[in-house]
Amino acid sequence: MVRVMGAVATQGAMAQHDARHDGRGLKYACAGVAISAIWTAVLLTGLFAPDMVTGSEHDHTPVAALFNWFWASLATGFILLAVALRRRDGGTHRQWWYALAIGSVALWAGVTVVSVAMPVQKTGSDPTEVPTAALVAPVVAMVATSFLAAFVAIFSSES
């Protein structure tokens, strides 16, 4: 009888350990998906977003490639901060981690589409072309990602 009770207690402890491990793996996987989406968007906008064209010689400057990495680094930091603040999450409230992954993918896919597809702004007698969308979209996505990560860090805590 004691042996059976000990086996049941051991199985219960292992099930709790497995649940904690599974929740931690899910959290890291969702954060990995979110961070991958961010840096994929940076790569695609750096390659395909229109350049800023200035001067009488029409010099091209790839502003998306020059600036988007900074905003992506901040967004990555916010996601890693949310993961670090929820170290003890034992698999509860998984929907928040799914929301972080799906929300980040949607935000940064939007950055890619907007940066590449939106027309450039032309000004001056020597037409200076400024890709405003490629400059503004990553900033907006970084702010939205920071709010999303903050909500996940706050609401995914164990009750």
Regarding quaternary structure, what we see is single chain
Topology, number of strands: 4
Structural class: mainly alpha
Helical stretch tally: 4
Give structural notes:
- With 159 residues, this protein is mainly alpha-helical.
- It has one domain (23-155).
- Helix content is 74%, strand content 8%.
- The chain has helices at residues 2-48, 63-85, 94-117, 132-155, and strands at residues 52-54, 59-61, 121-123, 128-130.
- The strands form 2 sheets. The protein has a two-stranded antiparallel ribbon with strand order 1-2.
- A hairpin with a 4-residue loop joins strand 1 and strand 2 (59-61).
- The chain is elongated and about 60 Å long.
- It starts with a helix and ends with a helix.
Summarize the structure.
With 159 residues, this protein is mainly alpha-helical. It has helices at 2-48, 63-85, 94-117, 132-155; strands spanning 52-54, 59-61, 121-123, 128-130.
Q: Any key phrases for this structure?
A:
elongated, 159 residues, two-stranded antiparallel ribbon, 4 helices, mainly alpha
Helix and strand arrangement:
Blueprint: H1 2-48, E1 52-54, E2 59-61, H2 63-85, H3 94-117, E3 121-123, E4 128-130, H4 132-155
Antiparallel strand pairs: 1-2, 3-4
Helix pairs in contact: 1-2, 1-3, 2-4, 3-4
